[in-house]
Amino acid sequence: MTRTHHEQDAHPVQAERGQDIAEQLCEQVRRADADATPLRIAGGGTKAFYGRPVEGETLSLTEHRGIVHYDPVELVVSVRAGTPLAELEAALDAEGQRLPFEPPHFGPDATVGGSVATGLSGPRRPWAGAARDFVLGCRLITHDGKQLRFGGEVMKNVAGYDLSRLMVGAQGTLGVLTEVSFKVLPRPAATRSLRLEMPVETALERLAEWGRQPLPLTAAAWHDGALHLRLEGGTSSVAATAERLGGDTLEAAFWDDLREQRLAFFGDDDGRTLWRLSLPNNTPTLALDGDVLYDWGGAQRWLKSAADAETIRETVARAGGHATCYTPQAQGGARDPFTPLSPVVAKYHRQLKAKLDPNGIFNPGRLYEGL
């Protein structure tokens, strides 16, 4: 059971200091900027597939690790970027707390910095919020080798221009993340998962209906003829909702396997490409060939298909969404994994890159060619 603030210690938890190699990192960045040498920013490498390959001198953050500050009462934690994600989650779990956005690991070497840089969130994202929503501040090495702090450890911080949330999903193309401060939340008193057999059309209708009701839903996925639900919250609320919805009991490990792409769906692809389709809520089924797993209540869909990238992206765009290729080009995926930018948006991306990284040393081409 989660401890209340009154039950928690009145003082911050003793933080694990780890190792601070920020000055070494700053020096390497200064040399690279002076020589216009591209840098490939690296952590645990578990999400290296997510984006375009980068050629350059490796700047590794794996030794820059440790929890700098953790205050369970204030629900804030600051941690160095190279800290293993599992280490941070274990420290939070010991205090009955968690990262609400449920970041995927994709391997035991996943780091906190990699999770923020990719901006990926798990099944809880539509109900709890995205990674960006829980980043309070960060320390960042700029192109000239200076380490600056943006944001802080409170939800509102107006001291200077806050670049911290801009770093979420930037994949290291704008600077080197060295430390991140998060807002964390208590674990729920009760959790229960259900499996209800029904066709996908019925599942989408039910989810649209339940979305207008105060139900303790924190995950919803459909696959292989069944809707999978997770309920989290107060004991009585979870029990009453489970009784109302019915269905069979589902092992909680399902959600970990979905988040980490360990389900059978993500196994042998028969030469097909894996795509993530991001769509508006209540979007009906799309006319695309392949196997589909519906996550986030249907707003995120995993598609395994042999269809070409243009067909997939055009179909998804007509529905108001966008498609990201998860299969690396080396394995037959799309050359450009992310949806091409419109001319106007591309202009702003170039201007931002030129301002923060004038010599183009930070992960060049990781997101888009030329950026």
Describe the protein.
GO terms for molecular function: glycolate dehydrogenase activity. Its EC number is 1.1.99.14. It comes from Modicisalibacter tunisiensis. This is Glycolate oxidase subunit GlcE. Residues 8-187 form the FAD-binding PCMH-type domain. The protein has three domains: 22-186, Uridine Diphospho-n-acetylenolpyruvylglucosamine Reductase, domain 3; 190-259, Alpha-Beta Plaits (2-Layer Sandwich); 264-331, Alpha-Beta Plaits. By secondary structure, the chain is α+β, with helices and mostly antiparallel strands. Helix content is 24%, strand content 24%. The model is unreliable at 1-10 (pLDDT under 50). A five-stranded antiparallel β-sheet has the order 3-4-8-6-7. Strands 11-12-10-13 form a four-stranded antiparallel β-sheet. A four-stranded antiparallel β-sheet has the order 15-16-14-17, with helices on one face. It is globular and about 65 Å long. The chain contains nine helices and 17 strands.
Essential attributes:
single chain, 371 residues, alpha+beta, Uridine Diphospho-n-acetylenolpyruvylglucosamine Reductase, domain 3, Alpha-Beta Plaits, 3 domains, five-stranded antiparallel sheet, four-stranded antiparallel sheet, 9 helices, disordered N terminus, oxidoreductase, Oxid_FAD_bind_N, EC 1.1.99.14
Separation of the first and last Cα atoms: 47 Å
* CATH architecture annotation of the largest domain: 2-Layer Sandwich
Domains (count) = 3
Shape assignment: globular
